[in-house]
Design a protein that fits this description.
2 copies of one chain form a homodimer.
Chain A (H helix, E strand, L loop, with lengths): L2 H6 L9 H8 L3 E5 L4 E3 L7 E7 L2 E7 L2 E8 L3 E3 L1 H5 L7 E4 L3 E7 H10 L1 H27 L2 H12 L5 E3 L2 H8 L3 H13 L3 E4 L2 E4 L2
Chain A binds a DNA duplex (30 and 30 nucleotides) through helix 8.
DNA sequence: CGAAGACTTGAAATAGATCAAGCGTTGTGG
DNA sequence: CCACAACGCTTGATCTATTTCAAGTCTTCG
């Protein structure tokens, strides 16, 4: 897929013409990140946003050897927006958890774009709002729901469109803020109660 | 304090002239909320934002009889922005925890204002980003830090400007997502270790 | 003044984490 | 292409921080 085409799927740019996208493209700097490589950290000054076009990036907080995943990003997504619009530092850390490719867009240029194409600002407000919904949902899950129902809801949601889904315990544990062991136990509980079926790594919900 | 004056302290309006504020004022509908009265709930469709000019409002999530506070708002603050820019429903519930006064501003009018005064959109992006920082911080506190250090950090932060601060166990427990008992125990631990002093309801940090 | 609400302290319960060990899967380099 | 090392998954046993339950004291204010 061409970069131009990819830009179109970044929601804030979706309303722009090819000509306009072409201009934005000129601001972007692409870089490959290997699995395990840091994209940005909360210690560093936020200089702009990233656009993930390939791979997977984990956004997380770390403190005293423990860590909490906030979100796993997959293509095509924008990262680091909050840092760009407020504050010195990014609010969290981002690390590639697969070999990935990201473009960087400087805050100054982003603001230039927003000012030039006012429609974009509403889109941007929409993105930030979506981030807030996601985080509020995370807090709800972390503090109000037990492990088994969280895993169950996760699976239900993932199998909403597709019938069956590839299930990686480690990844799900990360996304839900649980340990691998807890997720594994939750799965066997759900299997026993007949709510799900799992053959190999393929999982499906019984409705 | 006049409404016009109050509007000026809502950061998104701070750059507007009196004439412009006067126009915005005409969109606002004020209403008194008694202690315990619901301002909005996550079940209801988001029709606009609120501006708190008096009292205290708690933003929280509830599930199966349990609840988790996301934030306590004090004047002058805006509430419900995320709902206005995305999604059918507000992401959480808001309830007055003191007798309060709020103005309501319809989404349509807010967007009109943003489109008319483009500078406002950057301010708005800043507000949403600040909300994200706050929530990320909440997640960090809830999942990575223990009760005693959370209470300690809370007190340190609150006593940053003032030397001494009025401490209400119940309110702090809400804000930190802990039980009253846990906060009370944390306080006595901190007192014993000499890190803080508390006489009556007045608390201070030993530095 | 008295009663409702706020705070403290102790004892018990609990959900999930941590530690530990064994098994399964996979992919790489010899 | 096979072997085996590294990694992922499962299951059991213990541990621990915080919640819950309970009961008593202190505060405040109508």
């Amino acid at each position: 897929m061409s970069l131009l085409h990819q830009l179109k799927s970044v929601s804030i740019f979706s309303s722009l013409s090819e000509r306009e996208l072409y201009e934005i493209e000129s601001y972007l700097i692409g870089k490959k990140y290997l699995n395990g490589e840091m994209v940005f950290s909360s210690y560093e000054t936020a200089r702009g946003v990233f656009i993930l076009t390939e791979g997977k990036v984990k956004l997380y907080k770390a403190f005293k050897g423990k860590e909490q995943t906030l979100r796993i990003f997959t293509p095509i997504s924008m990262l680091g927006e909050a840092g760009a619009f407020k504050g010195e530092h990014y609010p969290a850390n981002a690390i590639a958890i697969e070999n990935s490719y990201l473009f960087f867009l400087e805050t100054g240029n982003l603001i230039k774009i927003i000012e030039r194409y006012p429609k974009i600002s509403l889109k941007m407000l929409g993105i930030l709002s979506e981030r807030l919904y996601h985080l509020v949902n995370l807090v709800e899950n972390l503090t109000l729901k037990d492990a088994v129902s969280r895993v169950y809801e996760y699976i239900k949601q993932k199998t909403d469109e597709k019938k069956e889904v590839l299930f990686k315990t480690t990844l799900v544990a990360m996304e839900l803020g649980l340990t691998v062991e807890t997720v594994s136990r939750a799965i066997s509980t759900l299997k026993k109660s007949g709510k799900i079926e799992k053959i190999g790594k393929i999982i499906k919900v019984n409705r």
